[in-house]
Every structure is written in C-alpha cells, then in structure tokens.
Here is the input.
Amino acid sequence: MAGSRKDVRDRLLRAALDLFSERGYDRTTAADIADRADVTERTYFRHFSDKREALFDGEGALQHALAGAVAEVPAGLSPSETLLRAFLAMIPALEHEGDLKKRRQAVIAAAPELRERELSKEAHLISGVAEALETRGVRAPVAVLAAVSGIAVLSRARLEWLAGASDDYATLLRTGFADLRAALASEPASPGR
Amino acid sequence: MAGSRKDVRDRLLRAALDLFSERGYDRTTAADIADRADVTERTYFRHFSDKREALFDGEGALQHALAGAVAEVPAGLSPSETLLRAFLAMIPALEHEGDLKKRRQAVIAAAPELRERELSKEAHLISGVAEALETRGVRAPVAVLAAVSGIAVLSRARLEWLAGASDDYATLLRTGFADLRAALASEPASPGR
Here is the structure.
C-alpha cells in the first residue's frame, strides 16, 4: 500500500490504537501493528524504535510548537501569565483530532508502561517550556518551576477536556492557573474552599 | 549467606549500584546482582520484580512518610506553607545514607529507562501528597497542583543537595518555594532577576 510518509505514520498510529484497544498493549507486537497497517515490519521500524512509539508520534512537534508559542507572547508578563497566553494560543492544536486523542488516552491509562512513557513526554515538554522562558529572561530556577506547574495545569485541562468534563479549553486553563495561585498563596483559602 | 530481610535488600541495592556503575545498567542482569550479593536469583525475585526495582526500594516507605509529615503539620496554614513544613520535617530522612543516594542518582541519570522509572516514582509521591492535602480539607484540584509544584521544589532541592551545591537542605527548600512564588506571581519580576 502506497502513501506519503505522513500517511504511513497516521495509519500506523491508528493500527496501534486499534490493536492496543482490542487485545491490550501487552498482547500486541510491532509486527501486528505493521500487518494491520498494511506495511512491512521493517517499515514500522523505519518510523518507530519500538511498538509503543507509534503512540508518541508528534511529541517533538508539540514541544517545538509550545516553545514557539511561549516565544511569541508579548514581553512584560509574569512567567505564569506568559504560559497561560501560550497555552491559549495552542488550543486549536490541542483540539485537533480530538477523537484520536481520546482513544489514545484510554489506551495509555490502561498500561503502566505507557503511563511511564507519558510522564517522560511531560518531562520533555517541561524542559522545552523552561528553556523558552529562560530565553525570555526568566531566571533558570524560576523558569523550571513555572514550567513544571504550568505543564501540570495544561495536563489537567487536557485530561478534563479528553474526559468530556468540559469542551471549553480556555476556561479549563484559566481555572487551572487560578487553582495554582490558590495552592501557592501564603494565606490559607477561606473555609469550605 | 544469612541475613535479615532488610540486610538482604540492602546488599541487593549495593550490589545493583556497584554493577550498574561498573558495567552500565544495560549490561547487568538480575542474576548478576544476586550473584554479587551472594544470594540466589530466586531470592532476588522474591524481593524485586525486575533488575531495576532494587534501585527503587523504599519508595512506598518514602510516600508513607511524606504523607505522614503533611498530616502532622499544624492546621490553618496554606497548602504551600504546609508542604514546606512537611519537607523540613523530612530532612533527617532525606539526608540519611547520603553517599548511597548520590551513587544511586548517578546511575539513574545515566540510563533513560531508570529516569522514566524515577518520574513514575515522583508521580506516586505527588498523588500521595495530594491525597494528604485533601484530607486536610484542601480542594482536590488545588491539592494536586500544590503537590505537583511542591514535589518539584523538593526534587530540585534533592538534586542540588546530591550534587553538593549546598548541604543546607532547609535553605534549598525555602529558596525553592520562594522561586515557585516568583514563578506564579501575577506581576513580572523586577529586571535582572
């Protein structure tokens, strides 16, 4: 079956999702995925280093896009305000192919090995964002902590959106940063909160 | 070679550290570790599920101790102040067997698979701390974000301490929380910071 490089990667991602959902991650091999996508195993390994990587395609592009979004925020804002604006600018990308993302999330939630890999993806996003903040002149330790907590807000918004808790990404992100400020406030929140 | 359960686990940890440092993680098997520790491979697997888990012994105990420390902080403090106090109370445990911890850190830094496992350990600490904060009446989303950013401060202090940047854990922790507040401030930091 012919196809552009991007087509083949898309087919492999869908095949991996189908098989991991049907049989479970442990009972699927890279050869099975290649077979379902109608390519050779060798083609699979030309695209991905192992069976789990089909699910993590686009990781580099996302990291790059996030760093770019941080760079484009107007100067003169605090680190957390900068991150909020960068994340808001990413909403179209975050919403893109939502159904695929929801299926992917379900597969990852079911396999501990994939959850570990997802954490490592998050760690890469954090270092990319921290670097982008440093480039804007934020001190390194502050940049790292802003990135860790900002990515935590983004991840939570993403999970809530994927779970269908809300389809309003902007509000999920704003609420997340407000909760983060409440967590860091030096005064305790009023009772009942 | 005889020994209490704790002795055997300590020997296995040291043997794993020795072999991972000497040969590298990839070129060491669980059988090698058992051999170096003078126990059978079967004994190794009675203690740990695979070769990497010897390095992550004590994870459950640490999670438990941290949650306990959070629970013991006097009431009426903000989430981040609660975490700072809990972490300060953990300093003796954090400093315990510092040389072993430094060696362990060097081994983990050298192997991507171990770094992923370390992230998953951190994720467990985060959920334990978030739960402990919730038990104190902090709203769930605020508790999670406080835990993520608090554990990031703790991790940074730990790495700085292990790297020998300072032997004053309390100052490292206080500076970390101050940096976190700077990251989350709604006003940008003054120039030069």
Q: What stands out?
A: Chain A has ten helices and no strands. The two ends of chain A are 57 Å apart (CA to CA).
